[in-house]
Amino acid sequence: MSMSKSKLVQRVLSLTDDDLQALCEAADAAILDGGGFGWVQPQGRQVLERYFKGLLLVPERMLFVVRLKGEIVGCAQLVRAPRNNECQAMCITLMHLFVAPYARNRGLGGALLHEVENAARSMGFRVMNMDVPDTQTAAISLFQKAGFLHWGTHPHFARMGDQTVSGLFFTKLLDTVRSPLVEPSFSSQAETPDMTASSPSSRPLTLYPAIDLKDGACVRLRRGEMEDATVYSDDPAAQARAWCDAGFKWLHAVDLNGAFAGQSANAPAVQAILNATTVPMQLGGGLRDMKAIASWLEAGVTRVILGSVAVKNPALVREACRIFPGQIVAGIDARSGHVATEGWAEVSDMQATELALRMQEAGVAAIIFTEISRDGMLDGLDIDQTVALANTVSVPVIASGGVGNLDHLAALRKAADDTPGLEGVIVGRALYDGRVSPDEALKVLA
Ligand code: AMZ
User: Fold this and answer.
1) CA-closest candidate to residue 27, choices 55, 59, 49
2) How far is Cα of residue 305 from the mean position of the Cα atoms in its chain?
3) Among 198, 214, 248, which residue terminates a domain?
4) Quick check: is 281 in a domain?
5) So what's the pLDDT on residue 36?
6) Pocket around ligand 1: residues whose beta carbon is below 6 Å from it?
7) 96 and 226 share one domain
8) What is the DSSP string of 232-288?
9) Which residues form the active site (predicted)?
10) pLDDT at 186 over 80
11) Probe ligand 1: pick from 289, 316, 328, 333, max atoms within 8 Å of CB?
């Protein structure tokens, strides 16, 4: 699939001839300038071409490129630990970040680093490591500005010409929430991570107000039954705006007819919401092929939720995660532990935890877990099941189904203090009925 060239930073899975030539050009210029990510001498075009083509075939490596006016001018690689290295599965190494000399001083290095970091975070990595020769002063200041901790110096790090140079080792703890910002925004404070920390988390949980769409209107169902729908608004865009005005930082939209039909069925309403709001939105319901996924992401949806295909076509989820890192979320909806699909009309043999592990392996950015028997019933979340799931995987888990009052949110907040993987909660009926006020909810979850 071809990727939009308008995106400043992107992960690439294949390179067109033009992109390959531009990448080699940038690498060549960086080598000549003395910052050639390990190469000391110019290599010639053929060597560089073979290198980048080969690199795309290595399963542990991911290549990210940065563009200027559509042309590749730099890149970076993320390298995961070998599969047998289970105890370091949460670590990712950033390697070979460079921007060609002719494209410097435009903030592109910072943008590249920021997006690569976001992608790593979204894939569930918790620690980013990297090392750099001490001659690379610009890179060093970039990493320091981005909050990387310089934890050690290797006195005999590399040999450049007739000189041995030392190398600086950096690390950064990645928090669990992906910044929705695309622009680079650096903290000037260097973090001092406690690598042994198991202390309670004080991250605010994200509240995702649910906008469930049925026949163009905003509804809530009970236990997912289409016949048991309460219509809350016939203007979903106005409703979405109201939730933004109430202070929510994300929207969670579901195309209910789409989930039953296996294809989007409320596209005009979704598009109207996108036009009316600026906060990031995740969208699910009926997204069953790459075309549907790509077109909603291109339309401005920040993350898509895949439910039925997570069970029925995991290869598609894997491929989507490779093409759109950080933008694919698995929706795991369970009835007594068994995963339901097709608008929850079908129940599979698969256990929620088993699917969660498979989805983590596929590379999803997060998992939304819904206990169907509680959805729309206002009796409280299934916190035990959600916590168990969050402790099984390393990707963020969003709780859903059953919130009826502030106590239910407070109980989740408390559970989240001991469960760092819990990232947020979806609230529907309780918000629409006024049982939970946005202000109070946000305070309780902070
Ligand atoms: O309420 C329902 N019957 C329902 C619902 N809310 N059915 C599906 N869904 C949601 C899932 C997930 O977000 O929670 O639709 C999404 C999955 O859709 P699909 O088409 O990928 O299975």
Assistant:
1) 49
2) 12
3) 198
4) yes
5) 73
6) 221, 224, 254, 256, 259, 284-287, 305-309, 331, 333, 341, 343-344, 370
7) no
8) EES-HHHHHHHHHHTT-S-EEEEEHHHHHHTS-S-HHHHHHHHHH--S-EEEESS--
9) 212 (proton acceptor), 333 (proton donor)
10) no
11) 333
User: Are residues 231 and 184 part of one domain?
Assistant: no
Same domain, 306 and 418: yes
Residues 278, 345 within the same domain: yes
Minimum CA distance residue for ligand 1 atom 15? 285
pLDDT tens digits for range 20-48: 999 999 999 999 988 777 888 888 999 99
What was the pLDDT predicted at 3?
Answer: 43
Q: Is the pLDDT of residue 198 over 50?
A: no
Name the average pLDDT for the chain.
89
Q: Does residue 2 lie in a domain region? A: no
Q: Is the pLDDT of residue 197 over 50?
A: no
Q: How far apart are the first and last CA of the chain?
A: 40
What percentage of residues in the chain have a pLDDT greater than 70? 92
If you measure from the C-alpha of residue 413 to the centroid of ligand 1, how many angstroms do you get, rounded to a whole number?
Answer: 25
Q: Is the pLDDT of residue 230 over 90?
A: yes
**Count of the separate structural domains present in the chain:** 2
187: nearest Cα among 123, 125, 114, 90:
114
The residue among 198, 219, 251 that closes a domain is 198
User: Given 28, 212, 375, 382, which residue is catalytic?
Assistant: 212
What CATH number corresponds to the domain at position 313? 3.20.20.70
Q: Are 134 and 187 members of one domain?
A: yes
Domain limits for position 438 = 201-445
Per-residue pLDDT tens digits for 235-254? 999 999 999 999 999 999 99
- 253 CA to centre of ligand 1 in angstroms: 10
- From the list 28, 255, 333, 382, the catalytic residue is 333
Q: Which two tokens stand for residue 147?
A: 């909050």
**Whole-angstrom distance, CA of residue 388 vs CA of residue 410:** 18
What secondary structure letter does DSSP report for 170?
E
Q: Which atom of ligand 1 is nearest to the CA of 285?
A: 18
333 noted as active-site residue: yes
Residue with tokens 């759109």: 324
Q: pLDDT-based confidence at 7, cuts 50/70/90?
A: low
Is 28 annotated in the active site? no
Both tokens assigned to 330: 């698995």
What mean pLDDT is predicted for residues 308-324? 93
* pTM, entire model: 0.65
Closest Cα to atom 18, ligand 1: which residue?
Answer: 285
19 and 137 housed in the same domain: yes
